[in-house]
Amino acid sequence: MSTAVLSGNEAIARGAYEAGVRVASAYPGTPSTEILENMVRYPEIDSSWAPNEKVALEVAIGASFGGGRAIACMKHVGVNVAADPLFTLSYTGVRGGLVLVAADDPEMHSSQNEQDSRNYAKFAKLPMLEPADSRECKEFTRLAFELSEQFDTPVMLRSCTRISHGKSLVELSERVSDLPEPKLVKDPPKLVMLPGNARVRHPLVEERTLKLSEYGNSFAVNRAEMRSAKIGVICAGVVYQYVREVLPDASVLKLGMVYPLPKTLIREFAAKVDQLFVIEELDPFIEEQVRAMGLTVTGKEIVPLCGELSPGRIRTAFAKVGLAIAPESPAFTSGQLPPRPPNMCPGCSHRGLFYTLNRLNAYVTGDIGCYTLGFMPPLNAMDTCICMGASVSNASGIVRVLPPEEQRRVVGVIGDSTFLHTGLNSLMEMAYNRAPATVVILDNRTTAMTGRQENPASGFTLSGEAAAEIDLVALCRALGVRHVRVIDPNDLDATRKALEEEMARPEPSVIITNRPCCLLKGEHRFKPGEAMEVDQEKCTGCRACLRLGCPAIEWQPAPDGKRGKAYIDPLLCNGCTVCQQLCKFNAIQ
Amino acid sequence: MSDMITNILLVGVGGQGILLASEVLAETFMLAGFDVKKSEIHGMSQRGGSVVSHVRFGRKVFSPTVPEGEGDLLFGFELLEAYRALPLLRSGAKVVVNDYRIPPPSVLLGQATYPDDLVERIRAGFADSLLVDGLHLAQQAGDARAANTVLLGAVSTRLPIDETVWQEALARMVPKKALEINRKAFALGRAL
Ligand SMILES: Cc1ncc(C[n+]2csc(CCOP(=O)(O)OP(=O)(O)O)c2C)c(N)n1
To answer: Which of A318, A332, B130, B164 has the CB geometry, 3.0–4.6 Å to A324, for a possible disulfide?
Structure first.
C-alpha cells in the first residue's frame, strides 16, 4: 500500500477506480471538474464529458441498469439540471451501484449561488455521504457503491470546495475484481416508471429510508468521539475539522452519512453531553431534524447561515455563548488597497465583442463562462446572468414586453459549451416563437472558465480522441434561425457591422464568433501574434485603448502634470491587435 | 515530534504558478513524515484574480485552511498580494516575498496607484522579511519561469526540513527536462 497527497477530487476518482466503476460521466463545474479529469487516467473506466448534468446522470443510470457501477459528477447547481432523472431514479433504484457526486461551493468562490445540496438527499429520498478529507473521499466513494447495491438506491456523495480542492494524505488500495459482469436483465416493474409501477415503488422508497436511518446507528462512518461531556457537537464534512481545531476537548458526533440521520445514535450522544450543538455550513439541515426529534440544541443562533465556515468563524460562534475565546483582531491591518478581481486574459477572444456591445449601448442578457467577466469595468457590458442557457431565453422573454426601438438593443451572449449545455433548447424556443432578439455564440473552441475542457463542438473527447465536431452554423439553421453569420471577434469593424445589422433586424438572428481561447495550445488552436508596442511619440494619451480593460495595457501617468501615455507589457501581450484597431493615432504597432 | 502545526500561506495572482509551488511544499512535508493538508480555490479567481493557497503540516492537522491570524510563514509571489495577506499572519511571522509587481485593473486604468512603499511597510510589520528578486535569479539559473523555485529555495531555509527531502520532492514534482535548471534556481534561493 502506498500513500499519496491527493486532492478530494483525485481521491474520489481513486475511490471510484478502486470500487470497480465502469462508467463515469460529468459536465465540468467548479469545484467538481477535476474528478473526471483524474478519472480518465484509469483506462478501466469509461470516462467522458456529457453536454450537461442531466445527460451525465442519465448515462450513469443506463450503465447502472446494464449492471455496471457508474458515477456522475457535477457542481451543486448541476444537480438542479439533473434533478428530473434523479427523483425518479430514487424510485427505480439501481442494478450496478450508482453514485452522484455533488460539489457545493459555500462562499461562492466560483458560483452564482450557494445552495446546500444536502436538501436534495432529503427531497429525493436517498442517502448522502459527506467526507471530511481526502482519505474519506476515497473511502466514502467505495462505501457509497456498496451502500447503493445493498439498499438498491442511488447514493449522493457531497463534497465542497474545501474538500474537493483541499489535499491530504490517502492510502491507496487495489481495484476490486469480484464484481458480477454487466449483462442485460429485463425488469420492467422496477425500471419502467409508469404510474402503476411507480405506486408500487414509492412505499419501498419510504421503507428504504427507515432502514437506512436504522443502519446509520451502527454504520462506521457515523462515530461518536467522547471527550469532555460539557460540549457535544454534531457535525460533518470539513466542518468536523474546524470543530476539532477550535474545540479539541469537545465531544463530537461526526456524521459520515448526513441523510437519513441515525436517530438512536443522536439521542445517545445528546444524553451524554451537557450542551448539544449542531455546527454546519449553510442550511440548518441537521439542526432542524434534530430539533424535530424533540432535542434541545444550539445551532444557527450562533453560526452564520451564509458563506463558508472557518476555524475563526466557529471560534466567534462559541465565544458568543462563552465557550471559546473570541479571535483576536489581526496583528496587522493593511487598510484600503486596490482590489484584484478576476479579468479576461490579454488577447481574450471575448474582449472585442464586449467592447463593441458597450459602444452600441446594447442590453446584454448574459450567461455563465469566462465571458461573464464582460460585466467588469471598463467593459460593463452585461446586464443579466442567471444560470447556464438563460441568456438566450431571457432575451427571448424580455423583447416580448419592450417597444420595437428597445427590442433592438437586446443581445443574448452565450459560450459554446454553455450553448450546447442548455442554450440549445432556448434557441429552439426563440426561433420557434420568432422572438426578435440577437444571440451571440462566443465559440472559443473550449469550455474555458472551468479550465479548458473539450465539448461536443471542440472536436475532441475527454480522453483526447478526435470526435464528431458540431457544426454550430448548421445547428442554428436546423433550429429554425434564418440569419446566422460567423465573425472574427478580433476584427472590430466586422464585429460592429454584424452586431448593428443583426440588432436592427426584427427577427431572431445568431452571430457566431470564431476565435479560439488564447490559452488553448496546439496546432490548430490559438496562434499568438507579435507583441504590440506603443509609440510614445504618437500616443496622445487619449485613453481609448484603456477602455478594453486589457491586463497588458497600463496607464503611465506623466510626472510633470502633463498627459500620461499608454504602455503595453510585451511579456503579456500576445498580439490580438484589438487595441491597434482602436488607436486613432496609429500609435500602436 | 511536537503537536505544533506550521501554517504557510502562498499568495499572488492567478496564473503565477502558486498551485504548483504549494504542491511541492505538500509533497516535501509528506516525505518528511508529517501530516499535511492544503487548500486553495480554483476556477473563477484564476483569471488574474488574487489567489491564496493554504498549506499546513505537523503531527496531526485538522483544518485544511489556516485559522485567521495564525499564519507562520507568508510566501508571496507578488508584492501587493503579499501585503494584502499580512492580516492573516500572527505577529512575528516570517515573510518571503518576490520583488515583483503586477498592476491590478484599477491601476492599469489609471484610477488608482500601486503603492510604492510596500516593501518598507511589510518590513515595518514583520522584521523577518526577505525580499527576493525571483525573476532575475531565475534568469541566472537559466529560465525566467523558474522564479517560483527560487522563491521555494528561499522559503526552504525558514522551515525545519532537511535539504535532501526538498531535493527529493523537486525530483518528484518537476518534469525531468526542467529539473537541472530548477535545482540551480532552488540553490540560488537557498543561498539568500
Ligand atoms: C449547471 C451548471 N453547470 C456547470 C457550471 C460551471 N460552469 C460555469 S461556466 C462553464 C463553462 C463555460 O464555457 P463556455 O460557455 O464555452 O464559455 P467560456 O468560459 O469558454 O468563455 C461551466 C461549465 C455552472 N455554472 N452551472
So the answer is: A318
Question: CA A75, CA A72: separation in Å to the nearest integer?
Answer: 11
Q: Does A342 touch chain B (CB under 8 A)?
A: yes
Rounded Cα distance between A242 and A261, Å, is 21
Mapping DSSP to helix (H, G, I), strand (E, B) and coil, where does residue A409 land? coil
Option in A5, A377, A551 nearest B26 (CB): A5
B183 to chain A, closest Cα gap in Å: 22
Question: Class of A526-589 per CATH?
Answer: alpha beta
Rounded to whole angstroms, the Cα distance separating A219 from A196 reads 34
Distances (CA, A) of A234 to A119, A186, A237, A287, A318: 18, 44, 11, 9, 14
CATH of segment(s) A2-216: 3.40.50.970
Q: Do A224 and A253 touch, CB atoms closer than 8 A?
A: yes
pLDDT along chain A (589 residues), means of 10: 92 98 98 98 98 98 98 98 98 98 96 97 98 98 98 98 97 97 98 98 98 98 98 98 97 98 98 98 98 98 98 96 91 92 94 98 98 96 98 98 97 98 98 98 96 95 96 98 98 98 97 94 74 96 97 92 92 95 97
Q: Is A373 in the pocket of ligand 1 (CB under 6 A)?
A: no
Q: Quote the crossing angle between the two packed helices B134-141 and B147-156, to the nearest 10°.
A: 110
Q: Domain A351-524 falls in which CATH fold?
A: Rossmann fold (3.40.50)
> Which range marks the domain in which residue B154 is found?
6-190
Per-residue model confidence (pLDDT) at position B48: 86
What residue ranges do the domains of chain A occupy?
Answer: 2-216, 223-332, 351-524, 526-589
Count: domains in chain B: 1
Rounded Cα distance between A388 and A403, Å, is 27
Adjacency order of strands within the sheet including B5-13: A3-7, A166-171, B35-39, B50-58, B5-13, B71-76, B89-98, B129-132
Produce one character per residue of A397-411: b if its CB has 16 or more CB atoms within 10 Å, e if not: bbbeeeeeeebbbbb
Q: What is the Å distance from ligand 1's center to B121 Cα?
A: 40
Structural domain includes residue B1: no
* Predicted confidence band of residue B25 (pLDDT cuts 50, 70, 90): very high
- DSSP-derived letter for residue A587 is -
Residue B39 has pLDDT above 60, yes or no: yes
CB of residue A345 inside a 6 A radius of ligand 1: no
Task: Answer yes or no: are the C-beta atoms of A147 and A223 closer than 8 Å.
Answer: no
Distance from CA of B39 to the nearest CA of A (A): 4
Q: Which CATH code for domain A223-332? A: 3.40.50.920
E strands, A189-309, are 223-225, 228-236, 250-255, 257-259, 275-278
pTM score of the predicted model = 0.97
Beta-carbon contacts of A226 under 8 Å, excluding residues fewer than 6 positions away, are: A251, A272
| CATH number, domain containing residue B10 | 3.40.920.10
Separation CA A513–CA A70 (nearest Å) = 37
